[in-house]
Design goal:
130 residues, 4 helices, five-stranded mixed β-sheet, three-stranded antiparallel β-sheet, alpha+beta, Trna Endonuclease, Chain: A, domain 1, single chain, 34% helix
Length: 130
């Protein structure tokens, strides 16, 4: 079974492919998920559209937890670059859902994204980006 890093890299490559298939340009951010130096997983943009920073999360469980400091750094980094932050979440058998970070639930030390919230607030690629 692949480790979390390999799983994360695979998920990020899958997202880059998804953006490319829809006529966007997307790049993985080198070193994402390692230390504090890379505050997002992908940067994506399309001519005449707003560009986005993307934090990708995938889980077999029905809830995803993300460190608060990671999301705060991600949002700050996005605004410094003038880009819009978005969480790309994939739960088993659900496909990718795109969610505004403000829709995450504050649990104290972490932000949580339950599958139920992702399905209520999240959008499929074409709904979110087109």
């Amino acid at each position: 079974m692949p480790g979390n890093k390999a799983k994360g890299s695979k998920a990020e490559r899958e997202l880059v492919k998804l953006f490319t298939e829809h006529g966007w340009r997307a790049v993985r951010v080198a070193g994402s998920g390692i230390g504090e130096d890379s505050p997002c997983d992908l940067i994506a943009g399309k001519t005449n559209r707003k560009a986005f920073t993307i934090e990708a999360k995938s889980s077999k469980k029905s809830i995803i937890y993300i460190k608060k400091s990671q999301i705060e750094d991600f949002i700050t980094f996005s605004y410094v670059l003038g880009l819009k932050p978005v969480i790309a979440a994939r739960f088993n058998y659900e496909g990718w859902l795109f969610i505004n970070p403000t829709d995450l639930k504050d649990t104290g030390k972490y932000f949580a994204l339950p599958l139920k919230t992702a399905k209520e607030k999240g959008k499929k690629f074409s709904q979110f980006f087109e």
